[in-house]
Amino acid sequence: MLNRPTLRDHDPKLRKAGNAFVVSLALADLVVAIYPYPLVLTAIFHDGWIAGYIHCQISGFLMGLSVIGSIFNITAIAINRYCYICHSLKYDKLFSNSNTMCYVVLVWALTILAIVPNWFVESLQYDPRVYSCTFAQSVSSLYTITVVVVHFILPISIVSYCYLRIWILVIQVRRRVKPDSRTKIKPHDLRNFLTMFVVFVLFAVCWAPLNLIGLAVALDSRLSRAIPEWLFTASYFMAYFNSCLNAVVYGVLNHNFRKEYKRIVLIIFKFHC
């Protein structure tokens, strides 16, 4: 009688297929730092936008690309972890190397598709409160509600479901609720799951205030006057600060990242000395 495959039986290359989404997430974080952030700093120093309309549109587009790309990649990571841990028998077929690359391309195709409507409703505008060209929540109430639901609430719901199922399985395995089960979770897999779970929680916490403000204003335009400017500004910069946190999470929770960080710091230190 053939033994049922466990998480230990997978090809290491297939186990690492999920890392493609982590690299894709890192790319999403990097996009916003290369182009939009320098222009934001320039606007802060000059107390106004001086780069012109075209750069404003490009900056707003890349910010949207980073934000939506991040949440879509976080969703893909959650689905990948869910399939790997909760449906291990199907994982090899679903997430072969070729399939994974197709999924990554699909994530970015959906990301670009989600940003395109902004040009039709002219919602990418300069906001002097945050010195950025970004999505203007007040342009269209219906569009703002759609953006919050499709770009935040729906992905967060999917990710929450996936991680809830994973946590249930982890607790069952730890407590050995099913002693006859051959399902095993390696410590390495558990650490990877915890790392990406923390990434998800930080994203949800950082982006929730800004999305809730946008949703509230879209449902009742009178609230736009009641919301203090400092609260909107704080929620905005809190949201975009999230792009800086993922690298910190990887360094704190992942031994390989810590090792590479130390190596890079030592190389930089020796170079300057």
UniProtKB/TrEMBL annotation:
Cellular compartments annotated: Cell membrane
Protein name per the record: G-protein coupled receptors family 1 profile domain-containing protein
A GO BP entry: rhythmic process
Key words, A-Z: Biological rhythms, Cell membrane, Disulfide bond, G-protein coupled receptor, Membrane, Receptor, Transducer, Transmembrane, Transmembrane helix
Annotated TM spans: 20-38, 58-79, 100-121, 141-171, 192-210, 230-253
Stated role: High affinity receptor for melatonin. The activity of this receptor is mediated by pertussis toxin sensitive G proteins that inhibits adenylate cyclase activity.
Taxonomic classification: Eukaryota, Metazoa, Chordata, Craniata, Vertebrata
Membrane topology of the entry: Multi-pass membrane protein
Primary localization: membrane
